[in-house]
Amino acid sequence: MITPFELHLADDTITDLRDRLRRTRWPEPATVPGWTQGVPLDYLRDYWADGYNWRAFEARIGALPQFRTTIDGLGLHFVHARSANPDAVPLILTHGWPGSIVEFAEVVGPLTESFHVVCPSLPGYGFSDRPTGPGWTVERIARAWVVLMDRLGYPTFAAAGHDWGTSITTSMAQQDPDRLLGIHLLPPLVAPDPATFDTLTDAERSARNDLSAGESGDGYSHEMSTRPQTIGYALVDSPVALAAWILEKFEAWTDGEPISRDALIDNLMLYWLPATGASAARLYWESFAEVRDRFRVGTTDKITVPTGCSIFPRENPHPSRRWAEKRFKNIRYWNEPPRGGHFAAFEQPALFVSEVQACFRALLS
């Protein structure tokens, strides 16, 4: 059964959040300027409590056609926007951490010119249920997505994703290749190929260096993949802890500052309102070690589904095509857009839409 979903913000929910923000026990400022020790004090202090328009958020989220259904014992929340185009292709878009369906809010409408768009909230994220037991791995989520598309009447479909969405999209292609018309990965998860180390291009050398440098900002993943419950207490109880934990990654992983404060807080609200800070972190405990090995160590599995890849300049990892072709054996589209980072749909919605359209034109022609 599929039921419509509407968000209604109760006044006491808003009052409670404002009170928590205003009663925050603030630390002293960092001892150095900028973000090198974490989120600066002044970036968080007042706006969420006193400048943010709560009802405008409710309207923005409410403009998306949302539903819920139960799959494999878990209630799942998703956006489903059908196209008026009789030749539209079903497309499932998958977000990651620290994102949400908010990342896709500005691209759903334009994409419906060519696609029936489905954007699920990951288990334990947004308004999907929080798993009460272990086992909701990338592979299990991928199986649930295939069931969701079947339930919506799409026996075959296209898929795209970034962050966790890259791994889930790839897993769908592994488990149900006959159901997938093509996949679009931002980026594909592959490790540098040792066979190329004697002939590295400048871009490949830079990509290897970026992987090593990125380890200095990996504290979040070590914590969430080993002790998600520990950090979860802070993320569920303190809106400032949640904001600091998440916004630091938006600063580190975006290309410039293309996302407004309102949009960033919209995304935070999809963690705060349903209290999913801990449950979202548990996906790292379930699957991150395996996923990390795919782009740091390597993997022997092969993907044969038609594949497109968009490598945005501020993304990390930043694989080369020849590295990707070791794992993805049917790459038909490869592009490296001029701007954008880890949150491409959120940062550069028009560019993201054009990438998705160009990718599937190449894959489906």
UniProtKB/TrEMBL annotation:
User: InterPro entries, alphabetically?
Assistant: AB_hydrolase_fold (IPR029058), Epox_hydrolase-like (IPR000639), Epoxide_hydro_N (IPR010497), Epoxide_hydrolase (IPR016292)
One GO process term, biological-process aspect:
epoxide metabolic process
Residues forming coiled coils: none
Enumerate the Pfam families for this protein.
Answer: EHN
All residue ranges annotated as the Epoxide hydrolase N-terminal domain in the record: 2-104
One GO MF term on file is: epoxide hydrolase activity
Top-level taxon of origin? Bacteria
**Residue positions of the active site:** D163 (nucleophile), Y284 (proton donor), H342 (proton acceptor)
Keywords of the record: Aromatic hydrocarbons catabolism, Hydrolase
Query: What family, per the record?
Result: Belongs to the peptidase S33 family.
Query: Which named protein is this?
Result: Epoxide hydrolase domain-containing protein
